[in-house]
């Protein structure tokens, strides 16, 4: 019994250490590619917007979505990006992140002609890899909140892409515990995907209606 307890403690220690090291490396290795200031952000032809739900489970507005769309429109209006790939989950006719992002950007003054919708961005890994393999883009500006950008950049770097990221406004009061835990676990999974799993995203781009 004591041996099992010791083994359990050891495995827990190794697991936690691995998670912390992966998080440190993903953030550290991409830190120079994240921009918070609009003026210092390099100009790219294409921006990749990472999808999220327009509302939370309670039905209230998702501020991650709102601030991400506002940042995207701002970058387009000042000429930091010229065309926008909206990549998100469209797993049913009732849930369509790319379409929701398009509607929000239209209201913010971005013309439809300057938007391409990626309906199979089920995960961040899919969004980044499909940006290169499906839409043939290797030099991009990723747009999401700061906590999310590091992981997307890390994936892009290992795809041989030349990417920078713009950090959209964070929500007031900071991130929830659930959001932080989810991201802390997602970063080691990104490392696993890059070096071990090598998952193959869906290659078609079909809207579910």
Automatic annotation (TrEMBL):
**Keywords assigned:** Membrane, Transmembrane, Transmembrane helix
| InterPro entries with a match to the protein in the record | Cell_Envelope_Assoc, DUF218
Give all residue intervals belonging to the DUF218 domain.
48-185
For the keyword Transmembrane, the answer is yes
Cleavable signal peptide? none
Highest taxon, organism lineage: Bacteria
Segments spanning the bilayer are 7-28
Indicate yes or no for the key word Membrane: yes
Q: Can you say what this protein is called?
A: Vancomycin high temperature exclusion protein
Which species does the entry assign this protein to?
Larkinella bovis
